[in-house]
Structures are given as structure tokens and as C-alpha cells.
Amino acid sequence: MVVGDIATGTDVLVIGAGPGGYVAAIRAAQLDLDVTLVEKETYGGTCLNHGCIPSKAFVTASSIAHDAREGEAMGIHADPAVDMKGMRSWKDDVVDQLTGGVEKLCKANGVNLVEGRAEFADANKVRVAHGGEGQGSESIEFEHAVVSTGSRPVQIPNFEFDGEHVLSSRDALALETLPESLVVVGAGYIGMELGTVFAKLGTDVTVVEMLDGALPGYEDDVARIVRKRAESLGIDFHFGEAAQGWEPAGEGITVRTEDADGEVSEFGAEKVLVAVGRTPVTDTLDLEAAGVETDERGFVPTDDRARTNVEHVYAVGDVAGEPMLAHKAMKEGHVAAEHIAGEPAALDHQSIPAAVFTDPEIGTVGLTEAEAEEEGFEPVVGTMPLRASGRALTLDDTDGFVRLVADGPSGFVLGAQIVAPEASELVAEVGLAIEMGATLEDVAATVHTHPTLSEAVMEAAANAQGHAIHTLNR
Ligand SMILES: Cc1cc2nc3c(=O)[nH]c(=O)nc-3n(C[C@H](O)[C@H](O)[C@H](O)COP(=O)(O)OP(=O)(O)OC[C@H]3O[C@@H](n4cnc5c(N)ncnc54)[C@H](O)[C@@H]3O)c2cc1C
């Protein structure tokens, strides 16, 4: 039975309940607006269900297995067994707690939740299809809309995701058995994080990358440390090779690659994980019906209030472009909601951090030395190698460094590149320093707990001023 088309109205309609959408919805409701949030799948979006959270749960579990195996030098002798089903069920519990929490928070803040797939009918109306056969649909009229429909993995020719042999990151995070061997196509952050996870769990991992290095976009010395550690975990890298196709071979598959000279190589494995990037979900929304423009890659251009070319339609998160990161989505959701409510809010992209949860982790924020120079600063740089950090030694984890970039004449902190255990946490201090307009002197004069990794941030600031104690000044 079709349950007719019921029309309702709302001040703010949010499409997609990922970190961009649920933050926009909750904040708008806190500001006394009538808010409706439409989600076609599960609350929390990619981040909570198939991205940040499940991948980090796997990063933790795989590191425990790996560290236990590697504890000989500390007098720990262990040979842990990996029970993939158990690991997955623990990860699912973590995910369920968070997605349930998002739903509860939305309800507690008075957000109207609607399950279904939204599509624009015009600039002030969407149609929501409620899932399966006979579930019906409804129309919702809105004063303002926030598009937060996220992104999906990019498919490459000849590698259609089938969840069995050819995996997306989402499939890889749902595996019930540990593959004996895995080819990872793409050495970006998702490929490197998941490649590291599987290598630590005991899978034989080969990474194939079209470019000539891992982690494009990161400085060479940053990427090199992570790649070397990955190699020491047994990951076999093949750079300058493009994946061309695959075919079944016995129980597994053979992946074919080709380099720039046309030389073909073949790699046998149980499965292949394709992690070559993500593309915005803007093609299934009928944005044209609302008059919202997209660029040639499908992203929705926005201003510093997250507004699209249609003034009362906002776009936040992955649909609004790089960096495609959850904290950027949340910030944009916040700004959109506040702007709709008439609050003074704007986006400041200056200090959006980025983290890669490899081993060691990478944390970056603000400008590199080269970028600072390009922007007309006279950069000074201070470095603290982790081998000089007492805490890093007690963690048996000394590959890496903290590098601070500042403006020479004023001393203002401009950026940091950190390769270290917990770099994802350490980088927050530098983000705050940039946001607060702190100088090198401020950071160097702040008393840090001993022994901690965060002391390295203080030492790098002192090093940039020529008075570090625990490392030689340059
Ligand atoms: C493996 C992996 C690891 C990651 N790790 C990190 C990390 O460590 N840190 C980090 O910052 N980022 C990470 N990311 C990126 C992060 O997940 C995204 O940047 C973030 O989820 C974007 O949020 P969003 O709200 O824009 O979209 P999404 O989280 O993608 O949410 C969009 C939501 O919209 C819904 N939707 C889509 N179309 C419709 C429609 N027509 N009607 C109704 N609902 C719709 C979808 O079902 C989805 O729930 C990772 C991503 C992956 C894949």
C-alpha cells in the first residue's frame, strides 16, 4: 500500500546525518529553530559507521596485537591470536554506542528525525522516499536547507566493488575473517591506515600506488618515516604503477598493474582494497531543481558562511570540498546553523588540523615552511627529534619529530608537522596556538608536564628561538 504524499514544513531541513548534518541540526535546534533531519541510512554518516570510528577501533586493536608481539625487548613474551569476529563485534559495539548517542542527542534537542532519501523538488521543497516498497513518501517545505550528504569511495575502471574480492574501505571494515594477503590500491591516508592495520594483524600487504610516493600532499620527510615503518611491518610498496584490472586465481585473485613505460606486473592476493579517494554525493539529490550549482568534480562551492549560490541553501562537510574530514564537516555544520539563526558566524580554514593514524601518526596544522614563504612570511622553523624525548624512549617509539613553523619577525606560530605516537592529539596544542595568535615564546614558556610527548612541542618552539635545552640549536 502506498501511504500518500504528506506535506509538512520546517524552518531548517538538514539532509544527511553525518558529522556535518547532525551538528548543524542540533545547533540549529539549540538556537530555537524548528529542525528536520533526513537520513537514508544510519545516524552518524560515514564517520561513525564506515570511516573514522571503525577504522580507529581497528587501529587500536591491531596495535595491541602488534605491540604484544613486539614486546620482547621489554621482557614481554606473547603470541596473540587475532579473532576477527571478536574484533569486529567490539568495533560494532563502539559504533552502536555512538550512533545511538547521535540519535538520542538529536531527539533530546527537539530535532524531528525523518528516515528516507531526500531529493529536491524545488528551491523550497524536498521529497523524501521512505525506503522500501509501499513505504510511501512525503514532501517537506523549508525556509533553509543544509546539504550534508557526504561522499562515497571513488571506483576505478575494472575494479567494481563486490565486497568479496574487490573491497571498498567500508567492506574492509566489515570483514569477518582476516585475509591472508591483500593488495591495497592507493597510498593515500585511507590506504596507508588500513594497510597498516592489516599488516599488524598478520595479513601480507602489498600497496600499489600510481604516484611515486606514499601520502601525497605531505612533505617528503613526513611521508618517509611512515613509509619506512610500514615497510618494517612487511608492507611491500610499488610506486609508479597503475592498477589495470584483476582476475580470479585459485581461491584468490591476481591484480595487474602497469607503469609509465608500459611494463606490466602481477600481484597475487586473497583480496584487493581500492582506496583511491572519495567523491561527493551530489548526483542523487536533484540539486538542479533547487538551482544549486556544483563544480566540475561535483562539489558544491560555498562561501565562508557555508552558503551555496542559492542564499538559503547551505552545504557542509564532504559535499562542500576539501579537506574531506569529519572535524571540518562539524565546524561547517555549526557555522551554517548559527548563520541561519542570525548569529555572527564564519569559517576560518586557517587552522584545520589533519591527522593520519598510521604508525607513527601524522598530525599537521596550518602552514608548512614552503607555504609560509609563498604567503610572504619570513618563516623560522624549530624541530625536536623524538629520539631526544624521554617519553618517546619509554614508549619505545622514537621515529619522528615535532616541527613548528613561525613567522620570524613577529614570532607568531603558523603551523606544525608532527610525526609521532599520538601526533593526532599533539597537533591540537598547535591549532590552539595558531587560533589564539600565540608566539614561539608563549609556547616555549608554557610549562609542560614531564615526561610527555607534548614537551617536544615546547622544545621545538625553543629550538626555533635558538635556546632549546634537550636538542642542539641550529
Ligand atoms: C575509512 C575512512 C576513515 C576516515 N577517517 C577519518 C578520520 O580519522 N578523521 C576525519 O576527520 N575524517 C575521517 N574520514 C572522513 C570522514 O568520514 C568524512 O569527512 C565525514 O564523514 C564527512 O561528514 P559529512 O557529514 O560531510 O558526510 P557523511 O559522514 O558521509 O554523512 C552523509 C550522510 O548523508 C546521508 N545521505 C546521503 N544522501 C542522502 C539523501 N539523499 N537523503 C538522506 N540522506 C542522505 C548518508 O547516508 C550519510 O549518513 C574517514 C573516512 C573513511 C572512509
From TrEMBL:
<feature type="domain" description="Pyridine nucleotide-disulphide oxidoreductase dimerisation">
    <location>
        <begin position="352"/>
        <end position="461"/>
    </location>
</feature>
<dbReference type="InterPro" id="IPR023753">
    <property type="entry name" value="FAD/NAD-binding_dom"/>
</dbReference>
<dbReference type="Pfam" id="PF07992">
    <property type="entry name" value="Pyr_redox_2"/>
</dbReference>
<dbReference type="InterPro" id="IPR006258">
    <property type="entry name" value="Lipoamide_DH"/>
</dbReference>
<dbReference type="InterPro" id="IPR004099">
    <property type="entry name" value="Pyr_nucl-diS_OxRdtase_dimer"/>
</dbReference>
<dbReference type="GO" id="GO:0004148">
    <property type="term" value="F:dihydrolipoyl dehydrogenase (NADH) activity"/>
</dbReference>
<dbReference type="InterPro" id="IPR050151">
    <property type="entry name" value="Class-I_Pyr_Nuc-Dis_Oxidored"/>
</dbReference>
<dbReference type="InterPro" id="IPR012999">
    <property type="entry name" value="Pyr_OxRdtase_I_AS"/>
</dbReference>
<keyword id="KW-0676">Redox-active center</keyword>
<comment type="similarity">
    <text>Belongs to the class-I pyridine nucleotide-disulfide oxidoreductase family.</text>
</comment>
<feature type="domain" description="FAD/NAD(P)-binding">
    <location>
        <begin position="11"/>
        <end position="333"/>
    </location>
</feature>
<dbReference type="InterPro" id="IPR001100">
    <property type="entry name" value="Pyr_nuc-diS_OxRdtase"/>
</dbReference>
<keyword id="KW-0285">Flavoprotein</keyword>
<dbReference type="Pfam" id="PF02852">
    <property type="entry name" value="Pyr_redox_dim"/>
</dbReference>
<dbReference type="InterPro" id="IPR036188">
    <property type="entry name" value="FAD/NAD-bd_sf"/>
</dbReference>
<keyword id="KW-0274">FAD</keyword>
<keyword id="KW-1015">Disulfide bond</keyword>
<protein>
    <recommendedName>
        <fullName>Dihydrolipoyl dehydrogenase</fullName>
        <ecNumber>1.8.1.4</ecNumber>
    </recommendedName>
</protein>
<keyword id="KW-0560">Oxidoreductase</keyword>
<keyword id="KW-0520">NAD</keyword>
<dbReference type="InterPro" id="IPR016156">
    <property type="entry name" value="FAD/NAD-linked_Rdtase_dimer_sf"/>
</dbReference>
